[in-house]
Amino acid sequence: MRWVAALLAAVVVWLPLGGCGDDGAEPGAPRGATLVLDFTPNAVHSGIYAALARDYYRSAGVDLEVRQPGASTDGPKLLATGRADFAILDIHDLGIAREQGLDVVGVMPLVQRPLASLITRADTRIRRPRDLEGGTVGVTGLPSDDAVVDSEVAADGGDPKTVERVTIGFNAVASLAAGKVDAVTGFWNAEAVALRERGVPIRVFKLDDYGAPRYPELVLCTSGKTLKEDRGLVRGVVRATVRGYRFAVKRPMAALDDLLNAVPSLDLDEQAAQLHLLLPAFRPVQSSVGGDEVLAWGKWDVTHGILHDPSVVKHAFVDSGVF
What we know:
This protein is α/β, with parallel strands linked by helices.
């Protein structure tokens, strides 16, 4: 667990960057704060729910309320308008928000590789991304889905222009299971797991195996205003979240119990399978903001039309050693 100690050390080093020096609420009087998730609670959030169940946030002086978003794009707007203190954002949404002038900033990575993938049935002719030439791919309609298709097919030596995109919304599992499309864009830790749970034979082509750099997919974010005016609160939330994910890596089934106790509607077997896949991706990468990983992410997003201004990545993250 040397990476955990390194991350904890990094948190201590980078968060006190000046300012008022506020360390959060006094013991016994935790500060209220809200955290908006990127999606419905699932195994990727296990560290957060472990930290809640074990009072890590309260120990850090924070009374944290976790909320589900109405849509995946809610987080940046809620942060920028002060209606949420923290949010889990997909890294592309963070970049888009900054490009739109929203005052949001990443303070801690959660998942240290892309989760996006192309998923095909294993009982078809599609054995690699370039086999999708002349075929159909179900996409949600988000620009990042087209980027996934273009990147993977091109990286495998195919012509992405020959691949037909069919907008299916968020019905990837049902569409592929029914054979309505040759492939779907989806997360290897979510849709791929759901398909396997249904007994659908699949092949999964991960994005960073076909053209994309290994960037942190999910990022804990706050507003620039909160970071400037209440570093103690940010410090407390980061430290507690690090403890939660440390616990999840060390005792994954206990962390899974914490998640399921908070959200009993989740399926145990499916979430256990998701968490098993995710555990290696929880390991943080220790490099500086503006390093190769982040710059490569920005270049990839611009190349594939998700972002238009590569300079937005320069200030998308706290100037620290976390990345």
